[in-house]
Amino acid sequence: MGVIANNPAVFDLVASSAQAEKIATGFTFTEGPIWHPDGYLLFSDMPMDVRRKWTEAGGIVEVMKPANKCNGMTLDADLSLIVCEHWTSQVIRARLNADGTEASRETIASHYGGKELNSPNDVVVASDGSVYFSDPTYGRMPVYGNEREQDLDFQGVYRIPQGGGELQCLADDFAQPNGLCFSPDESTLYVNDSGVLHIRKFSVNADGTLSGGEVILDGIGSPDDFGAGICDGMKCDEGGNIWVTGPGGIWVVSPDGEHLGTVEVPEHTGNLNWGDPGWDVLYVPSSTSLYRIQTKVRGNRLAYMR
User: Fold this and answer.
1) SS3 category, 159
2) Which H or E element spans position 260?
3) Fewer CB near the last or first residue (10 Å), C or N of the chain?
4) CA 37, CA 276: separation in Å to the nearest integer?
5) Cα distance between residue 131 and residue 6, in whole Å
C-alpha cells in the first residue's frame, strides 16, 4: 500500500512513502469523521447504529447508541456538532459535553415543501454559519437506515440559512448527491453524485445559492462493482485540491478535475477528514476499520479548525 501517481504533483501533497495506518478495527461500516479541536475524533457506524470517539490515549469509546443511524458530521464555529441522521431524515445541531456526548440537541432541517427529507447524508458549514447538506435516499434502504417509501420525488442539495429560516433547495438534478466541500475561498462548492460516479462544480452566489454544476471528473468507480470503491466522502485541502473516496482508496484531484493520484487504503472507504493539532493528518473510516494518513498539506481551514 502506498501512493499511486498519475501526475508527480501528487507528491507535493503526500509523500510517496505514505501509508494508511490502521488505528482501530472491529466495526461494520464507518462514516462521518470529524476531529474536535479538544483532541478527539468522532465517527459513525450506521449499521451498528452507534457514534464512537477515538483518542490516541483512550482508544475507542461509544458516545451515543442508538444514534439514529447518523452519517455525515461536522462542527460549526461554536463547536456544536451538526449531524445528518438517516433514521429520522433530519439534520440536527447538538451541544457537546467535554467527553463528546450530547448535552442537548435541536432539529435544524427535517422537511422541504411539507414533505419529509429523504435521508440527509453529508454536511458542511460555510463561514457565514449557513449549513449545506446532501439528501440522497440511502437512509431509506435496509441496513443503512430506516426502510420506507420516499416522500420527495427528487434527491437534492440544500442550504439552511445562518440562524435558521426556510430551507432552500439549491439543486435537484442529482441521482444520489453525496459528499460536498467548499473551495478555500468558498467561491465554489463541489458535490459528488454516487449514483452516476462523478464530481460537479457549482459557483456560490453572493446570496448563498448555486449556479453552474458542470461535471469536472467522471468515472469514480464502476456501476458494476460498487464494492471496489466509489465517490462518497469528499474534502478540500488548503490549496483547493479535492480528496475523494474512490476505487483503491482516496483519489487526489486538482481543482480543475485532474486525477493526480490515489492514496491506497486496504478497505472500502466511506469518508475522510483532516485532524490532529496541525490539521495535516487524514482520518479515513473504511468499512470495518479506522485509518490515518500523514499528508504534506492541511485541510481547508473551516471555522471550527482552531
Assistant:
1) strand
2) strand 259-264
3) C
4) 8
5) 34
119 close to 138: Cβ distance less than 8 angstroms: yes
pTM summary value: 0.97
Interatomic CA distance for residues 12 and 295, integer angstroms: 9
Cell numbers given for 181: 466541500
What does the chain come to in residues? 306
Beta bridge partners of 153: none
DSSP state of 5: E
Is the Cβ–Cβ distance between 93 and 105 less than 8 Å?
yes
Instruction: Say if residues 22 and 282 touch (Cβ distance below 8 Å).
Output: no
pLDDT tens-place string over residues 8-64: 999 999 999 999 999 999 999 999 999 999 999 999 999 999 999 999 999 999 999
Q: Identify the three-state secondary structure at position 87.
A: coil
CA–CA separation, 286 and 39 (whole Å): 21
Strand blocks (E) in 195-241: 198-204, 210-218, 234-236
Do 41 and 283 meet the contact criterion of CB atoms below 8 Å apart?
yes
Alpha-carbon distances of 280 from 90, 164, 166, 253, rounded to whole Å: 31, 32, 36, 17
Q: Is the peptide bond before 277 cis (omega within 30 degrees of 0)?
A: no
Q: Which helix (H) or strand (E) holds 111?
A: strand 111-112
Among 236, 220, 231, smallest CA distance to 188 is for: 236
Which residues does 42 contact at the CB level (< 8 Å), separation at least 6? 32, 33, 34, 36, 51, 52, 53, 63, 73, 81, 100
Could you tell me the pLDDT band of residue 96, with boundaries at 50, 70 and 90? very high
CA distance linking residue 217 with residue 60, whole number of Å: 36
CATH assignment of 3-294?
2.120.10.30
Q: What is the pLDDT of residues 184-237, one digit of tens each?
A: 999 999 999 999 999 999 999 999 999 999 999 999 998 887 778 999 999 999
